Request: fold
Amino acid sequence: MGYKEEFIEIYQREIKRQGSEPLLSWLQQTDFFTAPASTRYHCACLGGLVQHSVSVYQTMQKYYEEGIDSRESFAICGLLHDICKAQFYKVSSRNVKNEQTGQWEKKPYYSIEDQFPYGHGEKSVFLIERFLRLKTGEAMAIRWHMGGFDDAVKGGCNAISQAYERYPLAVKLHLSDLESTYLHENGTSAVPNGHIK
Reply:
């Protein structure tokens, strides 16, 4: 089973909230299942975004506490925290010198072309809520999943501390995102190939 099939299987098994099917249908109309997760860091490859989403969901499972956490909330947060990256990257090309031949060659790479510049976590929350209603803890978790890498935190915002204190789900998603990115996916990068549509 590929990452796309695994994502859809988990999504349909765990997420039953009203609006979940239209949201999945919308995702399938975007480049979510073919987009990279980054331009040059983790999962910077064809299908990297869905790979990262499944990885974060799987990593979150070790933080699941029966009777405290919700399987649906974990699926929503793990699978959908980065939907802000759908329609975000494009394949560009640049000239790179071939060290063996000394010739310049066109090589593909991912660049950013944000069609809806609304931030990162807040953009994911906005896009999800166009289809299904998030619980407050889910919205906080997705909004603040970047932790100290979020531009608002860099600017001196202390709301993240309050969110983490009040909503353990936010901490669990942030830790899972960090672990997946830096421990499980760090070596998964490649330049795009000519098969990207």
About this structure: Residues 168-184 form the longest helix (17 residues). The beta strands are 89-97, 104-112.
